[in-house]
Amino acid sequence: MVIAFVAAPHCGFSTLKAMTAPSRIVVLGAGSLRCAPEVLASLVQADLPQESAVWLQDEHAEALDLAERLAHRLVTESNLLLRVVATPDPAEALEGAETIILCVGGGLREREGWFAIEGDEEAVELLRLERIRRVMATLQSRLESLAEGVTVINLARPTAQSGRFLPRPAIHLDWPEPLPGEQRVPRAHQMLRWARGEDPMFDLLE
Asked: How far apart are CA 160 and CA 173, in angstroms?
């Protein structure tokens, strides 16, 4: 069944078309500090059938672990019966997917040692796009082999450029907003406090 997200100013995708059977939603690049809190919060607020599965994939173990812990906390706080599964393997995550959310591209400065060009935003953006292009290339055959009815949602900013690397049609959303470098560490700490239940989630779930 095709799942269609409806864009909303405050949360990127706020509602889902009515579904009658459990669904499998895959978030690729789920460890993105920019995307993870808003995407996961939007999913638990969506009208997903009980016992649907949200698969989280990221090649970086620490980022994936944080996203998984936050997802479990959100599901618990929302009293839902959603299943959360985390894996570093995109092939495992994509098997049987009905909706795919692409969040690739986050955390590149820290992970690839870009501090030497931190002040040159144009150079950083070019390297980001090259990194996203490489990631999309590794996913190309898997995305091409997906069933025709699978919905792909691209959040890899800027989507006008990243969308050119996709081998199939997608919904492109320039959301969430970019996360400035100085906010990355505080965002990770906030996600950890949410995941531990140390801070309330009112702002995230509003």
From this structure: 9
Q: Where are the beta strands (DSSP E) in 106-157?
A: 151-154
The predicted model scores a pTM of: 0.87
Coil, strand or helix at 148: coil
Average pLDDT, the chain: 83
Place of tokens 């009208």: 47
Q: Which residues contact 104 (CB under 8 A, 6 or more apart)?
A: 28, 29, 32, 132, 135, 136, 156
pLDDT in tens, 11-34: 445 434 445 578 999 999 999 999
Going by C-alpha positions, the residue among 43, 50, 18 that lies closest to residue 155 is 43
Return left, alpha or beta for 80; rule: phi > 0 is left, psi -120 to 50 is alpha, else beta.
Answer: beta
Instruction: Answer with the residue of higher pLDDT: 30 or 142.
Output: 30
- As to burial, measured by CB atoms within 10 angstroms (0-12 exposed, 13-18 middle, 19+ buried), residue 31 is buried
Q: How far apart are CA 178 and CA 175, in angstroms?
A: 8
Spatial neighbors of 92 by CB under 8 A, at least 6 apart, are 57
Radius of gyration of the chain (CA): 16
